[in-house]
Amino acid sequence: MAFVNVDPENRDDPFYRYKMPQMQTKIEGRGNGIKTNIVNMVDIAKGLARPASYTTKHFGFELGAQSEFDEKTGTCRVNGSHGTAKLAGLLDKFIKKYVLCYECRNPETKMLINKNQMIQLKCAACGSVSYVDMTDKLTTFILKNLPKQNKGSEDVKQRKLNKQEKKQGSSSKEGISKASSTKKKASGCHSQVDEKEEVEVDDNDDDDVHFQTDTSPEAARQRMQDQLSAATANMVMLSTNESEKKEKVINMVSNKSNGNSNHHQTLVEELKANLNNGISARQLKSLMGTHSHEKISALLEALFDGIEKGFAKEVVKKKNYLAAILTQEKGSQLLLLESIESFFEKVSSTALKEIALVLNALYDADLLMEEYILQWYQEGLKGVNKDSRIWKKAEPFIEWLQSAESESEEE
C-alpha cells in the first residue's frame, strides 16, 4: 500500500514522518445510480485518528451530494462520479480544519468538545488548543455523532448533577441561595471540574493506532536522517554527486530548527507592512483568514510592538482591527485573551503595568465579555504559567469585575 504525508504542505518532504494511505477510489453503478466508493477510507481515517464517518460526511457537504458510511462493512460512498484527485483535495481541506494543529501544524491532535459545545484541537506536540470554526456544516454533524465510547462521560455528568441536587435539597434556604450564587459565577469561569468534563473525540477502534507510519527501509533511513543535525546532514550529503540536491536537503534540515521563529517573524513583518500601507479592518479580516493563536499574536505584535507608555490608549485607537479578528463564535474571545497573555509575557515591566487598563478598555468596547475574561483568568491561575506576573497585574480589574457581578446579583 502506498503512503503519503499527512500535511498537504509537506507532501514532498522526504523527512516528514506522519503518513496515511494514499486514497483509492472506484466508480460503481450507472446513470442516476452512479456512486464513488472510497475503498480505503477506514485505513485513511485511522491514519488521521478521526472517525471515518466524519470524513465521509465532509465529502458530502463539500460536493453537495449524499454520502454514507456503513459502520458494519466499513464502506464509504458518495453519490456521483468524482475523481480521486478531487476527493483527495477535499480530504486535505478536512485535515487542515480538523486534524492539524493551527499553531505548529503537527497532526498529533485530539478533538475535544468543551462545556460550551465548542470543538477544540489539543496538540500533543506543542500543547496549544485551537478552536475549530463552528460555522462549518460538519461541526453540527460531529456534535450529534460523538463516538460511542464517549457516551459514558455524559453519565458522569448526570451523576454529578444528581449529587449537587441532593446536596442542595438537604441544605437550608440560605445554603441554596449561596449555591445558586456560586453556580452563576461558575458559568463565567471555567472550573477544574469543567476541564475534566471535556469530551474527547477519538476513533479508538484500535487504541494503539493513531497514525500510519511507513516502516519500509527507505522510510526508516529518512527518519534517521531527520534527526541529524545540520552539520551531520552536510557530511552525509557530501557523498552525493548531485550538488543541487545536497543544498536542498541541508536547507530543509536547517529550516526545521528555525522554522517556527522565522515563520512568526515573517508573519509579523507582513502584517506591519499591510498596516503601514493603510489596510482597513475589513481587509485585515479577509487577509487573516482562519484565526489561530499564532496569527492573533503576530497581529498584536505588529500593532503594539515597542510601545512602553499609553498602551491602553493605543488599544482603544486600534480596536477596530481587534474587532475584525473576533467572530460570533465563543472561542474567538478566548483566543484573543490567550494571545494578549503571550504578548504581555514579552513586554517590558512598564507596559505590563497597563494590562488591567487594556482589559478594561476591551471590556468597555464590548470586544471582551465578562464571562470569558473570568474564565481566562481562572484557567491562568491554575495553568502552567500560574506564577506569571500577568495575573497579579490584572488582579485589580478582575476584582472589580467580580464585585460588580456580586452587586448586580444582590440587586
UniProtKB/TrEMBL annotation:
List the SUPFAM superfamilies. ARM repeat (SSF48371), Translation initiation factor 2 beta, aIF2beta, N-terminal domain (SSF100966), Zinc-binding domain of translation initiation factor 2 beta (SSF75689)
Q: Basic and acidic residues compositional bias: what residue ranges?
A: 152-168
Which biological process terms from the Gene Ontology are attached to this UniProt entry? formation of cytoplasmic translation initiation complex
Q: Which SMART domains match?
A: eIF2B_5 (SM00653), eIF5C (SM00515)
**What is an example of a GO molecular function annotated in this UniProt entry?**
GDP-dissociation inhibitor activity
Q: Which intervals of the chain are annotated as region Disordered?
A: 152-220
Name the domain of life this protein comes from.
Eukaryota
Keywords of the record, alphabetical order, are: GTP-binding, Initiation factor, Nucleotide-binding, Protein biosynthesis
Annotated Low complexity bias: 169-180
Here the segments flagged for biased composition (Acidic residues) are 195-208
Question: Pfam families, from UniProt?
Answer: eIF-5_eIF-2B (PF01873), W2 (PF02020)
The terms describing its cellular component in GO are: cytosol
Q: Does the keyword Nucleotide-binding apply?
A: yes
For whether the record's keyword set contains rRNA processing, the answer is: no
Q: What sequence ranges are listed for the domain W2?
A: 239-411
**Which PANTHER family does the record match to this protein?**
EUKARYOTIC TRANSLATION INITIATION FACTOR, EUKARYOTIC TRANSLATION INITIATION FACTOR 5-LIKE
Outline what the protein does.
Catalyzes the hydrolysis of GTP bound to the 40S ribosomal initiation complex (40S.mRNA.Met-tRNA[F].eIF-2.GTP) with the subsequent joining of a 60S ribosomal subunit resulting in the release of eIF-2 and the guanine nucleotide. The subsequent joining of a 60S ribosomal subunit results in the formation of a functional 80S initiation complex (80S.mRNA.Met-tRNA[F]).
Q: Which family does it belong to?
A: Belongs to the eIF-2-beta/eIF-5 family.
Q: Report the protein name in the record.
A: Translation initiation factor IF2/IF5
Q: Which organism is it from?
A: Corchorus capsularis
Print the organism lineage: Eukaryota, Viridiplantae, Streptophyta, Embryophyta, Tracheophyta
